[in-house]
Design brief:
mainly alpha; about 100 residues; elongated
Amino acid sequence: MSEREFEHQLDMESGQLDMERDQIASDNSLAMRGQWIGFAVVLASLCLAGYMAYLDEAVVAAVIAGLNLVGLAGVFVYGGLRRRAAQRHMQDTDDEGAE
């Protein structure tokens, strides 16, 4: 391999690493934004449930707070399942590469 080809290969690999780094930063930013929006929605619905309780609408307040709790639990369960599936996929990919 000539020196020019080697330098070209290094430049291509460096560009690929830069794209991967940018993609990870973008994914992290998107995840952080989603977490803040989720926090705001939960806070607003809990405030609404509190206000309903203040107005002596206990059933409505309980339904809103209960749905909030179920939704949060669902998000955490779904996130855990997704994380485990991604880890399994990475492990399977690594095992295939080793063969």
